[in-house]
Amino acid sequence: MIPQNSSFIRIKTNLKGNSMVESVLKWLQQSFLGNTWASYCWTLAVLLLGFTLRKGISMTLSRLVFRMVRKESENVPWSEFMRLLRPPFEFLLSLLIVYLAIQSLSLPSEWGFEPGKKFGLGMVVEKLFAIVTIVAVTWLGVRFIKFIGLVFKQKALLTDSKLDDQFVPFFRDLLILLFVLTMGFVALSRIFAVDVLTVVTSLGIGGLAIALAARETLENLFASFALMLDRPFTVGDSVIVGGIEGTIEKVGFRSTRLRTFEGSLVTLPNRLLTSQSLDNLTERRLKRAKFTIQIAYDTPLEKIKNLVKQIQEVLDTHSETSTEQGVVRLDTLGESALEIMVTFFVVTQSPREFNRVKEEINIRILEIINQEEVRFAFPSRELYIRNESRPDPPQI
């Protein structure tokens, strides 16, 4: 049997506990700056929970999206996908967390934060938040387009054609431009309530002024389409344009990047590529080498004939030269030397292979000259001094 005093103490304790709960609930219902403390606690809880789980949620969403495109993106690693998509995912989630957290809060009316059509601080904050959201969605879309472009770029590397290597970056940039413009029109219509059709129509009225102001930009844009249609070169080709020699790295909307053989990167406007003569070195089936050998005038005629004959045989028998176009001739009777002209064509498009074959032939020519004991001639002049006896001067 429980004593009466014990029961009384237990009932009193329960009442005391209930009063604590009631006091907490009463405190939560109290207002501060137009909001209850319960609203502040809810906002804080959503922020803490949301930012704690943000990375995990973004990782999960990224994995779901990657699984959707995994079959088409086998050559692109997961790490590259995360590098592109995870930052915009986390930023967009942060905006969503903040939006959900502040839904339970309302600021005092005298602060001027009421959202609505009336201009005020509330309208400005509301528009800024909407703009940031549009920017976040645009960032995510641009990164996703870049990932798709990376997938097609890896597929293009597996083909023998270089044309797709040039098309993929071009159309990737084109899609990014169209997507950004679309999101810009969405922002104008949804956030600022601007009639997009009216804007497009007004562009027709001021189109002439815009075209004059952006004449060079438009020229470069149309030139880029001309380069895509005519295809005078592809990415990776070696070209000479405007006295600049190098390898094409990228063809963009406004300019083309060219890596010179010295290693520097040159950016050329596309309009220059369409208005100037362009020499595509990669399209050359053969590469020509031409030089002269200067030998001394006192070289016997038979040695000259043997020298010419043996060098011709070297050109004709080499496995990487064109047998139909190699020429060795006694070309010029110079001031101080007999000049033998050597011309041959190497069947290659690689500058490195061309230099290798040229070196092999030069070494073989030196061996023949040494075997025939022919002397090289150097620019020289002979000075003859005429000595005549003169009468002695008269004696005075």
Automatic annotation (TrEMBL):
Keyword match Cell membrane: yes
Gene3D superfamilies, per database record: 1.10.287.1260, 2.30.30.60, 3.30.70.100
Domain Mechanosensitive ion channel MscS: 217-282
Annotated membrane topology: Multi-pass membrane protein
GO function terms (MF aspect): mechanosensitive monoatomic ion channel activity
UniProt keyword terms in alphabetical order: Cell membrane, Membrane, Transmembrane, Transmembrane helix
Domain Mechanosensitive ion channel MscS C-terminal stretches: 290-376
Residues passing through the membrane, by range: 37-53, 89-108, 128-152, 173-193, 199-218
GO cellular component assignments: plasma membrane
Subcellular location: Cell membrane
One Pfam family per UniProt: MS_channel_2nd
Protein family membership: Belongs to the MscS (TC 1.A.23) family.
The protein, known as: Mechanosensitive ion channel family protein
